[in-house]
């Protein structure tokens, strides 16, 4: 029989629930991400009629929550600095990220990938070097003159994964690395939103074109979300070459591309 007053019992129950959620922080993080995806899916269907994919809305919500978390705690990890949501740091870490990227490749038919042949290789090469070039020119226009900063921001224009990898390898400043991540996120969100609108105009309706599109754009999350809003069957193909793009960018950024930039600075 409960001998505590109702208010004390409720307070104790609430405290016990918080402790339980903190001890199972990864499960709490999964629940929160699921809730964000449900809300973003609802907004996408009801408010935008599917024109803006739920993934783009979810990323925007995640960035806003991370900013609020950083403001509240004065920390460096956003919501992960809140004890109750510490599991987000693990869920959003490199281990789960890499697992998700690799997992997309298992939906691809190898015959379709081989069928792209030379066009797939050209798409990958153009996609990487053009992104680096545009990002590097923007960095130069905003006053960056050292090869490390120009290369890092150019790498961010490729993807928000290649940017930090390149910046860390070149010992770029934290501010420059942050700019590279921001550039990659902007690109990712733009690809997510614009892909369904341009798909019919560029013939993005078959596995071959999806493979080439993924090689040109490179941002795995942006390509996957954009293709999901266009035709879900195309997602593994675009994500496959986008994954190759990320890996190739991480290899070329701190090495060949950095040496090229060094020649001109």
Shape: globular
Enumerate how many helices there are, as a single number: 13
Q: Please state roughly what percent of the residues sit in beta strands, choosing from under 5%, 5-15%, 15-25%, 25-35%, 35-45% or over 45%.
A: under 5%
Give me the count of strands: 0
Distance between the termini: 78 Å
Helix content: over 70%
Order of helices and strands: HHHHHHHHHHHHH
Residue ranges: pLDDT <50 for 5 or more in a row?
Answer: 7-12
Gyration radius from CA atoms, angstroms? 21 Å
Computed structural class: mainly alpha
Mean pLDDT: 79
Describe what you observe in this structure.
This protein has 265 residues and is mostly helical. It has two domains: 17-92, no CATH class; 104-263, no CATH class. The chain is built from 13 helices and no strands. It has helices at residues 6-23, 25-47, 54-73, 87-91, 94-104, 110-115, 117-141, 147-158, 162-169, 174-198, 207-217, 220-230, 235-263. Helix 8 (147-158) packs antiparallel against helix 13 (235-263) and helix 9 packs antiparallel against helix 10. The longest helix has 29 residues, at 235-263. The model is unreliable at 7-12 (pLDDT under 50).
List keywords for this structure.
265 residues; mainly alpha; 2 domains; 77% helix; globular
Question: How are the SSEs placed, and which strands pair?
Answer:
Elements: H1 6-23, H2 25-47, H3 54-73, H4 87-91, H5 94-104, H6 110-115, H7 117-141, H8 147-158, H9 162-169, H10 174-198, H11 207-217, H12 220-230, H13 235-263
Helix pairs in contact: 2-3, 7-8, 7-11, 7-13, 8-9, 8-10, 8-13, 9-10, 9-13, 10-12, 11-12, 11-13, 12-13
